[in-house]
Amino acid sequence: MTDIEIQKIREQFPILEKKIGRYPLTYLDNGATTQKPLCVIDAIRDYYLNINSNVHRGVHTLSQLSTDAMENARQKVCDFIHAREKSSIIFTRGTTESINAIASGYSQILGIGDTVVISAMEHHSNIVPWQMACERSGASLRVIPMSYEGVLDIDAYEDILKNNRVKIVSVTYVSNVLGTVNPVSQMIDLAHKYGAEILIDGAQSTPHMPIDVEALDCDYYAFSGHKMYAPTGIGVLYGKRKSLEALPPYQGGGDMIDHVTFEKTTYAPLPFKYEAGTPNIEGAIALGVAIDFLMEIGMEAICSHEKELMDYMTSRMKEIDGMVIYGTAPQKSGAFSFTLSGAHPTDIGTLLDNQGVAIRTGHHCAEPIMDYLGIPGTARASLAVYNTREDIDRLVDATIKSKMMLLG
Q1: What pLDDT does residue 258 have?
Q2: Average pLDDT of 358-367?
Q3: % of the chain with per-residue pLDDT over 70
Q4: Average pLDDT over all residues of the chain
Q5: What DSSP state is assigned to residue 121?
Q6: Tens-place pLDDT, residues 194-248
Q7: Residue 1 has what pLDDT?
């Protein structure tokens, strides 16, 4: 994308004009959450001004308008990830709830002797729900190892599949710490070869690259709206019809029922079987608008722009003496984790913030990665479509200045 195109995109994010003290804001914490364009902010305001009502339950005009707007957003999600049918799109609070929904269902069908497989680079949201499912069911949890560079051992993964009664695999598409883009197509094919289902955590992939769940052939795919320019509290669980219909529902309550008596309840068809209670209506509508925003730019263009920035950031940060980079896989996206020899990540993040540069520090909800690397945490700069080379230059200059203050 040209500088003019990026500037037009940035104009849709007024918060990027904010100053932190006397410094312009350089926002590089997009892996945690992205900023929101005016079109998304306006969509939330418009909903409450004009069509606020509950969905799927009323015959009055506002309820019909609200329902139509939410179901239109569901269709946008379906088209965005190239799903076959709209009923396979379930609105959740985010990736965490989406994974919990599947893990909860599996906890009721797993048994002793069954195995759940995750990888060594998972976010806590893709570890803890499966630990809970195994504790409830008596199933075992196995972990795909990775190299120090942040590359999964696919041979070891296949050995686990061969030698265990694996029922479900759940892996991240892109590591939120290391930026590694995992070979999920190969991993999906291997899971299916050995009779297992597979869930893909798309929280860090969906904002950065084109997604086609039909081409991937994954059984489940989860992602969050707030990491792709939509509000917090809205996310998506995609699942194949046969898979979603086979699992018990995650929650009970209103709108997920077909018929209720005190003796027995039957459940609504997809997607409503998994959408108990009043949903985040305005969040779903705003997610649809965020998808419009992304599609207008083009996911291929976004992917190309962010790759160029990642390459530039890697090159510039390597120039700094004492720079230690974590995650050097050949295929990377979004996240750049680092430390400075002799400096604590929290100190780095604090001094960068004092210069207007917003990054994330700590274990990034991925403590097992930090234990494996033998460090308390990292500093992480993460990219979005509105970032520029100037942002990277500010990061580099602020890091050099911080190093001088911390280490002399």
Answers
A1: 82
A2: 95
A3: 100
A4: 96
A5: T
A6: 999 999 999 999 999 999 999 999 999 999 999 999 999 999 999 999 999 999 9
A7: 85
| Contact by Cβ (8 Å): 330, 180 | no
- Say whether 42-295 and 3-29+298-407 share the same fold: no
Burial class (CB in 10 A: 0-12, 13-18, 19+), 199: buried
Nearest to 224 by CA among 95, 338, 370: 95
Show the tokens assigned to 40: 């998304």
Topology classification of domain 3-29+298-407: Aspartate Aminotransferase, domain 1 (3.90.1150)
Query: Across the strands, what pairs with 200?
Result: 171, 221
Assign 3-class secondary structure to 216-266. Answer: HCCCEEEEECHHHCCCCCCEEEEECHHHHHHCCCCCCCCCCEEEECCCCEE
Using alpha carbons, select from 308, 324, 328 the residue that is nearest to residue 392. 308
Preceding peptide of 271 cis, ω within 30°: yes
- The answer for residues whose C-beta is within 8 angstroms of residue 80's C-beta and 6 or more apart is 211, 291, 294, 295
Q: Report pLDDT for 344.
A: 95
**Count of CB atoms situated within 10 Å of the CB of 292:** 15
- Is a pLDDT exceeding 90 seen at residue 255? no
- Residue whose structure tokens are 């926002």: 27
Q: Where are the domains of the chain?
A: 3-29+298-407, 42-295
DSSP states of 296-325 as a string?
A: HH-HHHHHHHHHHHHHHHHHHHTTSTTEEE
pLDDT-derived band at 259, boundaries 50, 70, 90: confident
Distances (CA, A) of 184 to 1, 159, 189, 210, 215: 28, 17, 8, 14, 11
Given a contact cutoff of 8 angstroms between Cβ atoms, the answer to whether 274 and 244 are in contact is yes
The CATH classification of domain 42-295, taken from the options 3.40.640.10, 3.30.70.1650, 3.10.560.10, 1.20.210.10: 3.40.640.10
How many other CB atoms sit within 10 Å of the CB of residue 38? Answer: 12
Instruction: Note if 78 is an active site residue.
Output: no
pTM of the model: 0.96
Residue 254 pLDDT class (50, 70, 90 cuts): confident
Other C-beta atoms closer than 10 Å to the C-beta of 180 total: 28
The answer to whether 203 touches 222, Cβ cutoff 8 Å, is: yes
- Condensed to tens digits (0 to 9), the pLDDT of residues 79-134 reads 999 999 999 999 999 999 999 999 999 999 999 999 999 999 999 999 999 999 99
Out of 39, 78, 134, 365, which one is annotated catalytic?
A: 365
